[in-house]
Amino acid sequence: MIKLLVTGASSQVGSALCARALTQGMSVVWFDDDILNSLDASVIETAISKHQPSYVINTASYSVVDKAQTNPQDCYRDNHDVAQVLAQACHALSLPLLHLSTDYVFSGEQQQPYKEEAETNPVNHFGSAKLAAENVIRDQCAAHIILRVGWIFSAQGNNFVLRTLRQLQHQKHVKAVADQYGCPTYANDVARVLIAIIKQLSCGIDVWGTYHYSGAEIATWKGFAEAILAAAKTHGATQADVIESVSSEEWPTTAPRPAYSVLDCSKLLATFGIRQRPWRSGLVKVIAQVFKQSE
Ligand SMILES: NC(=O)c1ccc[n+]([C@@H]2O[C@H](COP(=O)([O-])OP(=O)(O)OC[C@H]3O[C@@H](n4cnc5c(N)ncnc54)[C@H](OP(=O)(O)O)[C@@H]3O)[C@@H](O)[C@H]2O)c1
Questions:
Q1: Complete domains list, the chain, with CATH
Q2: Which residue's CA lies nearest to atom 15 of ligand 1?
Q3: From its phi and psi, is residue 100 left (phi > 0), alpha (psi between -120 and 50) or beta?
Q4: CA of 155 to the centre of ligand 1 (A)
Q5: What does the pLDDT look like over 197-219, one tens digit per residue?
Q6: What's the whole-model pTM score?
Q7: In this structure, which residue's CA is closest to atom 7 in ligand 1?
């Protein structure tokens, strides 16, 4: 039986992954994440080896982008340093490491979807720390999969869908940035992709490396917010009726964001046969789940 050891199991992606793995007949170990903070590869190696997993999947991350801008050292420790010791431990145990990274490793200056080999040049501390994590994993653990994702949403945690939904319910005026482009991605779809990759790795294919996944259809934050509004309206009234446009300039954030961070996901399709799912179908499920929870 395939056994997954998941770090950050309470994250949006981690919890979706654990739930899905169990339905697929895999067993899951919810790793004690405090052990990661020892930042001692041999301590982590001992803790991992007790569970004898088939794969280690790292979904733990300091992922609050604005907070990272004022706490770069914490962000670097939780992203790079944790990835480094995990990579060292996995290499020592000859275990494959699957790791999640971000579209924010790119500068956003490109006008077409970023391929895996495109030049990286992060514009904020979060992106820099995640890029450093990627590099140390490539360096220290040959048997790795790095999956870059972006704009993750689910019915839990602190994400754009939940924040926008709260605003729509309590405010008459809701604004969203209309000049940043990306692809919203349902956390359950990332879990589906990770499971599909793991199943194929378990057949012994040698396809280590970096891949991109996002939901299908490019959007701006404003377009995404409009879809959230439309889905929310099917469940009842909202205070706001339209989404107002703002530019990045009019809406300064602590951390700058890339203006365009669309990922080209064709390598994932060519290698594993995994297609992008439309994020809109995931959004409808998430909104329904949130309204059900609040009944
Ligand atoms: N959210 C996005 O839009 C987005 C975009 C691009 C890439 N990603 C990447 O996708 C992955 C999953 O993201 P997500 O949104 O599902 O994550 P998330 O919901 O923000 O959860 C992050 C998890 O990491 C844990 N964590 C943070 N620092 C830790 C440390 N030093 N030691 C142990 N655990 C630690 C957190 O634990 P606590 O709750 O206890 O702090 C939490 O469970 C991450 O690698 C993230 O960088 C996410």
A1: 3-159+185-216+262-277 (3.40.50.720)
A2: 12
A3: beta
A4: 15
A5: 999 999 988 899 999 999 999 99
A6: 0.97
A7: 102
